[in-house]
Amino acid sequence: MSRIEFRNVCKRYAPDLPLTIHNASLSIEQGEFCVFVGPSGCGKSTLLRMVAGLEDISTGDLYIGDQRVNELPPAQRGVAMVFQSYALYPHMTVAENMAFGLRVLGADKAAIERKVKEAAAILQLTPLLDRLPKALSGGQRQRVAIGRAIVKNPKVFLFDEPLSNLDAALRVQTRLEIARLHRDMGSASMIYVTHDQVEAMTLAHKIVLLHTGELIGARGSVAQVGTPMDLYHRPASVFVAEFIGSPRMNLLDAVLVRAEADHAVLALAGQQLRADVDARHLPAGAAVRLGVRPEHLPLADHPPAQAGVLDGPLQHIERLGDASLLYVQAGGALLTVRVDGSALQPSGARVRTLLLPEHLHLFDSDGLACRRTAPLPH
Ligand code: ADP
Ligand code: MG
C-alpha cells in the first residue's frame, strides 16, 4: 500500500548548478524503517522533502503505493514530517500544538481530543498537555513535534535530523523512543535523515548511504543500500567503508600478486599475505587498497601461518575506558588499532598486529570493493 519508490530521480536546483540528486533509484517497503545517511550537503533533506511534496522533482518518478505522486500536493500524500527545529507554536499548549493540524483540516472536536490523548499516552506527554512549549525541555518539545505527526495517522513518517538539537544522553533516549514508536505504529513506514552513522546503524532496517560532491556526478547519488550489517561487513566502495564504522577503516596501499576464486594474495610492506576476497577481475600487479577496521587488528607476538603482520612504533594512545585506540606507524600509514581497555601499552613501544584473511577488504584503483568470500558472522 504505502511502498515508496524513487525511479531515476534527479534534482537540479538551478540550470547553472550541478545536480544535487543524480539518478536515485531506491524503494522503501511498507512498515520499513529506512535511514538516509551521508555527509552534510549530499542531498538527504532534498530527497526527504521530495517524498513530502515540498520539493519539485526535476526528472524521474516518485511512487507512493501504485500512484505516481510527482505532482500530488503534500496534504494528499499521507505523510507527516518532523523537523530538526521543532517549530512549535509558542502561545499554544502542548495539546493545542498537537491538535492544530487536525483542526485546520476541519476534523471534529471529539475525534481530535481522542487522537491527542492517544498520542500523548504513546509519547508519555499526558501530564504535560496543558503546558506551553517554553516550560518544556528540548526532549519534551521534540516529543510534541512527533506527537503532531502521530495524530495525523500518516502512512509514512518523515524525520529530518530530529535529534541534532539534543544533548548526547537525550539523543540516545529519544533514539530508543523513536525505535519503540516505529514498533508501536505497526504498518507505518519511517524515513529518517541523519548525518550520524551511529543513528543510522542503530535505527535502520535499511540504510541508504548517499554520495557527496563529485561522486554524485560520477556515480549517482546512491552509494549503497542495505542492512546496517551489510554496509559494515560488505561496503561496496572506499566511500562506504570509510563512512560506516568508527574509528574509520584503515586503508593501505598494496599490490595484487595473484587472484583465486576464494582468496587473493597481496604484497604489502615486504611480505605476501592472503585476503578472503575475489579479485579475479583485476590483473596481477594491479595497485589495490587494503582495508581493515581498527577492531579487526589483534595484537600478537606469535602470528599464525597465513596471517600478515604489521609491526611499527606506537605513536599515540587514546584511552576510551572500555577500549584504547593505538596509533601505529606501519604499512606506510598511521594505523588505528582498537584494543581492550585493560590491555595497556607503554608509550614508545612497538606494536605488532595481525592482518587476518577473513577481516581484509580489497578495493580497486577506482575505490570499488572486491567481493568478500569469507563467511560473515551472524
Ligand atoms: P543534506 O540534507 O544532505 O545536508 P541538502 O539536501 O539540504 O543536503 O542539500 C543538498 C545540496 O543542495 C547542498 O549542496 C545544498 O547547498 C543544495 N541546496 C539545497 N537547497 C537548495 C536550494 N533551495 N537552492 C539551491 N541549492 C540548494
Ligand atoms: Mg539536511
Can you tell me about this structure?
By secondary structure, this protein is an alpha+beta fold. The protein has 2 domains: 4-238, 3-Layer(aba) Sandwich (Rossmann fold); 247-299 and 306-372, OB fold (Dihydrolipoamide Acetyltransferase, E2P). The protein contains 9 helices and 21 strands. The strands form 5 sheets. Strands 6-7-8-3-9-10 form a 6-stranded mixed sheet, with helices on both faces. It has a 5-stranded antiparallel sheet with strand order 13-12-11-15-20. The longest helix is centred in the middle third of the chain and has 17 residues, at 168-184. Magnesium ion binds at residues 44-45.
Question: What's this entry about, in short?
Answer:
24% of the residues lie in helices and 32% in strands. It is built from 9 helices and 21 strands. The model has no long low-confidence stretch (mean pLDDT 93).
Topology:
Layout: E1 4-11, E2 21-28, E3 33-37, H1 44-52, E4 59-64, E5 67-68, E6 79-82, H2 94-104, H3 109-122, H4 138-150, E7 156-160, H5 168-184, E8 189-194, H6 197-203, E9 206-210, H7 214-219, E10 222-226, H8 228-233, H9 238-243, E11 250-259, E12 264-268, E13 271-275, E14 277-278, E15 287-292, E16 308-319, E17 323-330, E18 333-340, E19 350-355, E20 361-363, E21 371-372
The tally of beta strands, per DSSP, is 21
* Run of helices and strands: EEEHEEEHHHEHEHEHEHHEEEEEEEEEEE
β-strand percent reads 25-35%
CATH class of the largest domain: Alpha Beta
Strand arrangement within the widest β-sheet reads 6-7-8-3-9-10
The first-to-last residue Cα distance is: 31 Å
Averaged pLDDT, please? 93
The largest pleated sheet is described as: 6 strands, mixed
How many structurally independent domains? 2
Give helix % range: 10-25%
Number of helical runs? 9
Question: Cofactors and ligands present?
Answer: adenosine-5'-diphosphate, magnesium ion
Structural class assignment: alpha+beta
